[in-house]
Design brief:
single chain; 120 residues; mainly alpha; 7 helices
Length: 120
Amino acid sequence: MLWGELHQQGSNGSYASVHEHIRPWRSHAASPSAPAPPSSVCQVTAWIFTHPGHLEREQQLQLKAVLGVCPELARLSERVQGFARMMVERQGHRLGEWTKAARGKQIGELDSFGRVLVRD
């Protein structure tokens, strides 16, 4: 922009020479960072299926942001975490309760998973 203005006013200096001349006055502060790319489906899936205590702080924040804008995904995550706790704590006796709650969330894939579990 500056080089264009100088050129219009009759300057014969090259773009590189103008750039070199003004370099000492330029701010060396970091330029604003570009916004982070949106999380991929694979990333979000991995975060949902990972124990919350094993996620890095930034991953926890990103997951929270995603779940905050997608209520269905938040309900799914809640059910997945409940199932994982039930398995880790060996509480198989709670399977019926979990499948009933999963069906109440009205998430088709989860409902079908719950029916298969009960049938087996």
